Amino acid sequence: MVATGTRLTYRRQCRYNTKSNMQRILHTPGGKLVYQSIQKKAKGPACGDCGKALIGLPRLRPMEYRRLKNREKRVSRAYGGSRCAHCVRNRVVRAFLIEEQKCVKQVLADKLSQVKKEKEPASKKSKK
């Protein structure tokens, strides 16, 4: 435990207890107590669709993300760095079902046009 009677001064310019100026008391080898600055905890990347945290990506501050390589910023999958696997699966299934629905509509339209073509000549012949 750290003695509470000792007075410590901030080691940086900001002299207020703000979120970005958090400090930790540290014992030096010489027996002095000093403040050590603490970095803010990162929220981490989240899925753009459902909002859950993305698995396999580090939780870093924005400046530290810029220093990472591309392979460390994303997962090797479609929508790797922005969507979770479950949402990607939903997107693929939804796209497949929409394409299937278009095919079914096309087949029904062809059948309907064939039925109309068969009825037209029969009605023309009866008029003559």
UniProtKB/TrEMBL annotation:
The keyword Ribonucleoprotein applies. Keywords: Ribonucleoprotein, Ribosomal protein. GO terms for cellular component: ribonucleoprotein complex; ribosome. It holds the Pfam family Ribosomal_L34e. One of its GO terms (molecular function) is structural constituent of ribosome. Gene3D superfamilies: 6.20.340.10, 6.20.370.70. GO terms for biological process: translation. Belongs to the eukaryotic ribosomal protein eL34 family. This is 60S ribosomal protein L34. It comes from Polarella glacialis.
